[in-house]
Design a protein that fits this description.
The chain is an alpha+beta fold. It has 2 domains: 85 residues, ATP Synthase, domain 1; 45 residues. Helix content is 29%, strand content 45%. The chain is built from 2 helices and 7 strands; from the N terminus they run βββββββαα. Strand 1 and strand 2 form a beta hairpin. The longest helix has 21 residues. This is ATP synthase epsilon chain. InterPro entries: ATP_synth_F1_dsu/esu, ATP_synth_F1_dsu/esu_N, ATP_synth_F1_esu_C, ATPsynth_dsu/esu_N. It comes from Streptococcus hyointestinalis.
Length: 139
């Protein structure tokens, strides 16, 4: 069976390192499905979930919340470099829910105070919280 290596790296170090038969990611240009033998590619990622189908079983899927970054595909090695990333089993959904509420409140306050930079920062925090909630609920 054809396979590839998937590694997710953050400033805290290697967060994920497994063999896979399929990967689904979301780049700024759109969704991408990656199979072994994919052409070499470098692309920026959106705040989104990463789906990794492991080699041991077609039903074994790992979900990873990736907060942006870069994906590089080269010679059946897929490397994701991100500011942060968490596997579904490591996400504290209640903490992510609290972060979502904080971000929503921050958006409202920043809008009332006419602070567009703060609105933008809070919207990014909200996207990250929603991504973590979505991935965390898959476990």
């Amino acid at each position: 069976m054809a396979e590839m290596t998937v590694q997710v790296v953050t400033p805290d170090g290697l967060k994920y390192d497994h063999r896979a038969t399929f990967i689904h990611a979301v780049t700024r240009e759109g969704e991408i499905g990656i199979l072994p033998g994919h052409i070499n590619l470098i692309a920026p990622l959106k705040v989104s979930e990463l789906k990794v189908r492991r080699v041991d079983d077609d039903n074994h899927v790992d979900w990873i919340a990736v907060n942006g970054g870069i994906i590089e595909i080269k010679d059946n090695v897929v490397t994701i470099v991100a500011d942060s990333a968490e596997r579904e089993r490591d996400i504290d959904v209640s903490r992510a829910e609290r972060a979502k509420l904080r971000a929503e409140r921050a958006i409202e306050v920043a809008k009332q105070e006419h602070r567009p930079d703060e609105v933008q920062r809070a919207q990014v925090a909200l996207r990250r919280a929603l991504n973590r909630i979505n991935v965390g609920n898959k476990y």
